[in-house]
Amino acid sequence: MQGREGDLHRAGGNGLGDMGAGVVGQEAQAANGRFVELGVPITVRPRHVYATGDIALLIVDWVIDGTDRDGQAVHIEGTATDVARRGQDGRWRYVIDNPFGVQPEGHQVR
C-alpha cells in the first residue's frame, strides 16, 4: 500500500471526508490530503489484513500526534476499515478508505 499520495487511491474509489461524510475520486484524495497537510507524522499499526486474490480488507489502528505547521497541538486517532485492490501493476490501492471505520457513535476528535 505504499506509494505517492495520489497513487494510494484507485480511480473511482470511495473514501470518507470530514468525520464520516462520504466522498469519491478527487474528493477522497483531498480528504486524505488534509491529514497530510497537517505536517504531523502518522503512526499506523495494522491489526488485521484479510486478503483473497486481488482484494484485501485492512483493519488499521492509527494516530496523528504532534504539533502542526501553525504550532497547534494535534491529536487524531482512529481504527480504519479499508478495502484495497491490487492493480495490474502489482500495487495495492484503496477502493474504500474509511479512516474512522469503527469509532463508537458520538466519538469526538481532539
Descriptive notes:
By secondary structure, the chain is mainly β. Helices cover 12% and strands 50% of the residues. The chain has one helix spanning 25-37; strands spanning 9-16, 22-24, 42-52, 55-67, 73-86, 92-97. The protein has a six-stranded mixed sheet, with helices on one face. A hairpin with a 5-residue loop joins strand 4 and strand 5. The relative contact order is 0.22.
What keyword list fits this structure?
110 residues, mainly beta, six-stranded mixed beta sheet, 1 helix, 12% helix, globular, disordered N terminus
Look at the helices and sheets and give the structural class: mainly beta
* Number of helices in the DSSP assignment: 1
Distance from first to last alpha carbon: 27 Å
- Radius of gyration (CA) equals 14 Å
Succession of helices and strands = EEHEEEE
Q: Percentage of helical residues?
A: 10-25%
Oligomeric composition of the shown chains? single chain
Adjacency order of strands in the biggest sheet: 2-1-6-5-4-3
How many strands, which pairing sense, and closed or not: the largest β-sheet? 6 strands, mixed
Helix/strand layout:
Layout: E1 9-16, E2 22-24, H1 25-37, E3 42-52, E4 55-67, E5 73-86, E6 92-97
Parallel strand pairs: 1-6
Antiparallel strand pairs: 1-2, 3-4, 4-5, 5-6
